[in-house]
Design brief:
There is one protein chain. The protein has about 210 residues and is α/β, with parallel strands linked by helices. It is built from eight helices and seven strands. The protein has helices at about 20-25, 35-45, 60-75, 90-105, 120-130, 140-150, 165-170, 185-195; strands spanning about 50, 85, 110-115, 135, 160, 195-200, 210. A seven-stranded mixed beta sheet has the order 3-4-2-5-6-1-7, with helices on both faces. The longest helix has 16 residues, at about 60-75. The two termini are about 25 Å apart. The model is unreliable at about 170-180 (pLDDT under 50). It holds the Pfam family DEAD. Keywords: ATP-binding, Helicase, Hydrolase, Nucleotide-binding, RNA-binding. It catalyses: ATP + H2O = ADP + phosphate + H(+). Belongs to the DEAD box helicase family.
Amino acid sequence: MESQDETTFTSLNEKISDRTMKAIAEMGFEKMTEIQAKTIPILLEGRDIVASAKTGSGKTLAFLIPAIELMYKLKFKQRNGTGVIVLTPTRELAVQTHNVLKQLLKYHSFTNGLVMGGAVKKDEEDKFFRGVNILIATPGRLLYHLVNTKYFLYKNTNCVIIDEADRLLDIGNMDKPCYLFSPNELDLVQLLCTKTSCTWVGSAEKATVKDL
């Protein structure tokens, strides 16, 4: 059984940068939720996982904090392009995730971007021209930019996070993907996860973590 100290964010002081820790504290978070305590230490080691937990359990912080720390460890620069891609099934979730990301990045210099259906493509293209280190995207719009936006520098992508993976892929037991994506979008996910570290995050009543 974990002690109270082991489930606080301060227990990760030696693993998480001061910049991120300061942002976490300002956001009012002290104790990690179950899914955060189970996943953050694993993800900080750079391991691939499948994780599931109920809505409102703190999943967003669980994957964003290690993603930011990866960029920090790599000393990623704006000119390096996109290092992390977070794929979400809906525009609403994409906006929510982006808002959390911006708070966590308060003391970092990493650039961030949000691309999603319904937004102005030209504005998104301008962001890619300037450089987007951590990208939040919906599948269709991500596919559009991969195919059409020449300034989208994604060859340096190190990590792909599939949020609400059960909604995106109806993967059931996380082992056999089915077509809820269009064929091209499914190919995109499989390609990205083959070439990078990948984290799948789904919804479930019980917090579970599985190494890939």
